[in-house]
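Try this one yourself first.
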């Protein structure tokens, strides 16, 4: 029987990558999950796994401030022992790919993106020009190291064509794309879960629209951090005066509350079950960021709703312009506002949106991943 292990950068939160791990767990429920740091409280989803943390787990405060210890992460990954496994899958946007395996162990790296703060997202992490200049030698050192460890996996599997382009550019490697999964059973057009719906009556009364032609609400589902550009959406809706609902929390929370006008409503962090109802009842979902893939546009489409997205990154691979959504070309109020003013919600068929989302279902992901591993094990098809 094949023995398999999973490795992830850190188990501290819930997001798209964590949904990938949950889908892999369904395929291989006995596979343990290795990680440098495990935050029991912040990662409730991981209770289904046997989580094996590294020696870093004993450092005070690391579970909440792991970013301060990024320089120790490679050492933590290299300390793990995988000799008993036939296959190890590292799911990573940082250093999980640095694990060391024996030649007979198949190491597959499911790459979320090349390390953002070293490559494509440098300016988002170091915004001060002086600090950016001072940090150049450190960044250069870690870029060299990142290139070296990117050669360790037998195969790299990018999550999108966008990420494949970056892997080729920064690591000089190619791989077969397997798109991440969306739970098309949970996110759907029909059954509105009642359990966990937050402020449902409030939303119905304030944002549903009415026979006088008043608009319903538009929706943003996102972590509230700077590079997600939720501020762009808030500023645009401040000008339009239309209703906007924002689901999510993050470092930008207070600032966004401060600049938002009364037509913008913040609902905080909700469960997936609660979010379904908001997807189903909105006019459209706004996706203003350049993402490696982006699961939110697919969750919206699975619920039969169109998406208005920034024309860059993963959204260009998941939204069909004119059929399941529209794009705006620049991350400016003017560009997003122009797209919204031209947008006609009634033009988009829920069946078209749903059909697009089903191309990225969890069932399809699990089948593709399982077949990929079988082909590599039995055909010894390594790069």
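Now uncover the answer:
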């Amino acid at each position: 029987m094949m023995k398999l292990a999973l490795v992830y950068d850190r188990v501290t939160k819930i997001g798209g990558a964590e949904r990938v791990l949950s889908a892999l767990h369904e395929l291989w429920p006995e596979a343990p999950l290795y990680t440098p740091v495990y935050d029991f409280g912040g990662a409730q989803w991981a209770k289904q796994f046997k989580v094996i943390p590294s020696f870093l787990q004993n450092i005070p405060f690391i579970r909440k401030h792991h970013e301060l210890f990024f320089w120790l992460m490679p050492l933590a990954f290299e300390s793990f022992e995988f000799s008993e496994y036939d296959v190890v899958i590292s799911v990573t946007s940082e250093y999980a790919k640095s694990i060391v395996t024996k030649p007979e162990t198949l190491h597959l790296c499911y790459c979320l993106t090349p390390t953002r703060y070293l490559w494509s997202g440098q300016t988002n992490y170091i915004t001060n020009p002086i600090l950016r200049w001072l940090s150049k030698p450190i960044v250069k050192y870690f870029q060299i190291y990142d290139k070296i460890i990117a050669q360790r996996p037998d195969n790299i599997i990018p999550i999108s064509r966008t990420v494949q382009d970056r892997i080729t550019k920064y690591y000089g490697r190619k791989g077969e794309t397997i798109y991440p999964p969306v739970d098309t059973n949970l996110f759907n057009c029909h059954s509105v879960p009642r359990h966990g719906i937050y402020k449902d009556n409030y939303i119905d009364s304030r944002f549903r629209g009415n026979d006088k032609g008043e608009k319903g609400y538009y929706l943003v589902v996102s972590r509230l951090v700077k590079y997600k550009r939720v501020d762009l959406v808030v500023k645009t809706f401040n000008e339009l005066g239309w209703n906007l609902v924002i689901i999510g929390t993050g470092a930008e929370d207070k600032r966004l509350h401060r600049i938002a006008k009364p037509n913008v409503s913040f609902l905080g962090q909700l469960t997936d079950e609660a979010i379904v109802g908001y997807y189903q009842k909105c006019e459209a979902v706004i996706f203003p960021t350049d993402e490696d893939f982006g699961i939110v546009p697919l969750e919206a489409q699975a619920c039969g709703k169109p998406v208005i997205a920034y024309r860059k990154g993963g959204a260009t691979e998941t939204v069909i312009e004119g059929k399941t959504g529209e794009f705006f070309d620049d991350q400016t109020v003017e560009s997003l506002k122009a797209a919204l003013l031209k947008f006609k919600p009634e033009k988009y068929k829920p069946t078209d949106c749903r059909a697009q989302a089903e191309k990225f279902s969890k069932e399809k992901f699990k089948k593709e991943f399982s077949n990929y591993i079988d082909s590599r094990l039995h055909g010894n098809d390594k790069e």
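Discussion: The first strand starts at residue 4 and ends at 8. Residues 149 and 191 are 46 Å apart (CA to CA).
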